[in-house]
Design brief:
Elements (H helix, E strand, L loop, with lengths): L1 H16 L9 E2 L2 E4 L1 E7 L9 E8 L6 E7 L2 E6 L7 E7 L8 E6 L2 E6 L6 E5 L11 E2 L4 E3 L7 E4 L5 E5 L9 E4 L7 E5 L8 E6 L11 E6 L4 E5 L7 E6 L7 E6 L5 E6 L2 H5 L4 E6 L7 E7 L9 E4 L2 E5 L5 E8 L4 E8 L13 E5 L7 E5 L3 E7 L8 H5 L1 E4 L6 E6 L4 E7 L5 E10 L1 E5 L6 E7 L3 E7 L1
Parallel strand pairs: 7-11
Antiparallel strand pairs: 1-2, 2-28, 3-31, 4-5, 5-6, 6-7, 8-9, 9-10, 10-12, 13-14, 14-15, 15-16, 17-18, 18-19, 19-20, 21-22, 22-23, 23-24, 25-26, 26-27, 27-28, 29-30, 30-31, 32-33, 33-36, 34-35, 34-37, 37-38
């Protein structure tokens, strides 16, 4: 029995505690990369799904813990990433009706809002604070509220500054924005709709603070509408007003875009232009300094032929999921001089960079920790981080740590030859934390582990290294 436990421990020790793989010589394990390390990976099989799609995130204001939210065909998965190399799959909110390849999630305050292309799905509302006390992961969650003012829906947009959700691509109003008051998240109420005889596939809504002072403080929606980009003032939900439209050359399918931080430029991805016209992955850069007269500034072409999908701006970087080419990072700091360029990438689809709808669906780059979520259609959840910003195993520190007696019955002594002992955490073979001992800054400590059952555990010291402990 002990040999079986040790064998299982060996497998899980590698899978759980050494998930981080640095990007070296152009690869992080099997994955092509440039300047991004793999923190961790959770497969679709572990998530109990057949396909992945959208992703978002939530940071708990109570303690700063970070949680990734990933859509899959049969529901929405929640993952504790507060320890990025040891993510914990907490559970799933099942789809409201049928499975679907399309699911989208956004967050307002401490609630997730979920829509899907599944017939009759509507909008699920989930209280994210329930993730704080999951005792038997992975759990099956239930929605805390449901909005049935529409059925199927392609996407949901939320401006976190305002308590309104914008459902786009529904079967209502020709697919135009369907606006819902979510200021009381558990009681969503219809607020208005915009029907201009066009279908909005995706959108961004901002409280405008850009260079066009005519609209300062207004709620501005930028819609990606299949064959054009639209600018709509949605401040008055009962009377939204079209400001302008703008088109571009070589239209395939106007898919999704995002403002730069100063709201002067809009970066658009067209989902079918690479297929239809045969060029490399293209980003259309619009000049939005005048919302009444937007124009194309220039086109940026990437380094592969892959199709671009969802992209988001954080500071001076544009993080874009390019399906088979994975996540690409584009520096937009000199965009006003028509000078943007790719700096790095992490490719979750190592098979090829073919022009196909496989690989990375979306990215979420907004955690304060700077860990980035990549949701992959075929391979599940990835967490990556810029190389060199989180060290791997500290071998010098590891050599200075002693645990004894080991095996032990009830008391474990921990000594550090150099440095100070501040914390020891214990994990079982399934990766569940079962004990945490916080100590004063000492060179040694004695820990009572008599409440733990016999078996093999991992002791993690000062959040730096992990060592095997056997309790008899």
């Amino acid at each position: 029995m002990k040999k079986l436990l040790l064998s299982l421990f060996s497998i899980l020790y590698t899978a759980i505690f050494f998930a981080q793989v640095p990007c070296e010589n152009g690869f992080a394990g099997d994955y092509p990369c440039n300047d991004y390390d793999l923190m961790s990976h959770i497969s679709l099989a572990t998530l109990g799904a057949s396909a992945g799609n959208d992703s978002w995130g939530w940071t708990d204001p109570a303690d700063g813990k970070e949680y990734a939210i990933m859509g899959v065909d049969n529901g929405t998965c929640f993952i504790d990433i507060s320890d990025p190399v040891n993510p914990v799959y907490l559970g799933k909110l099942p789809t409201h009706t049928n499975p679907s390849a399309w699911r989208d999630i956004k967050v307002y305050q401490n609630y997730a809002f979920v829509v899907s292309e599944a017939s009759g799905h509507g909008m699920q509302v989930f209280d994210l604070t329930k993730l704080r006390n999951v005792t038997n992961a992975p759990a099956t969650f239930s929605a805390d509220a449901h909005y049935g003012g529409f059925g199927n829906c392609h996407n949901i947009v939320i401006n976190p500054d305002q308590g309104f959700a914008y459902a786009v691509g529904t079967s209502l109003n020709n697919g135009g924005p369907h606006m819902v008051d979510i200021q009381n998240p558990l009681n969503p109420v219809f607020a208005g709709a915009y029907d201009a005889s066009f279908y909005t596939h995706d959108a961004q809504v901002v409280t405008y603070n850009g260079p066009d002072t005519d609209y300062t403080g207004d709620q501005i929606l930028i819609g990606s509408n299949e064959d054009e980009v639209v600018v709509v003032n949605v401040t008055n939900k009962s009377n939204p007003v079209l400001i302008s439209t703008v088109s571009y050359s070589n239209i395939g399918y106007t898919h999704q875009g995002w403002f730069t931080e100063d709201q002067a430029y809009f970066l658009l991805g067209d989902e079918l232009d690479e297929i239809n016209f045969g060029f490399n992955s293209k980003t259309v850069v619009f000049d939005f300094t005048d919302l009444d007269n937007p124009s194309v500034a220039f086109d940026f072409f990437g380094q592969t032929t892959a199709i671009d999908h969802n992209g988001y701006v954080k500071n001076d970087d544009f993080f874009v999921a390019e399906y088979t080419a994975g996540m690409r990072v584009i520096d937009v700091s000199d965009i006003e001089n028509s000078n943007i360029f790719e700096t790095s990438y992490f490719d979750t689809y190592p098979n090829s960079d073919a022009v196909s709808f496989s690989g990375a669906w979306s990215v979420y780059p907004y955690f304060d920790s700077e860990n980035i979520v990549i949701s992959d259609i075929d391979s599940g959840f990835f967490l990556v981080r810029e190389s060199g910003t989180l060290a791997t195993e500290d071998h010098e520190f590891s050599a200075s740590v002693k645990l004894y007696p080991n095996p032990t019955h009830s008391i474990l002594n921990v000594e550090i030859e150099q440095g100070e002992l501040t914390q020891v955490e214990f994990f079982d073979v399934m990766g569940k934390k079962v004990l945490q001992a916080s100590l004063d800054e000492l060179s040694s400590g004695q820990i009572n582990i008599s409440n733990l059952s016999s078996g093999v555990y991992l002791a993690r010291i000062n959040n730096k290294i992990s060592k095997k402990v056997i309790i008899e």
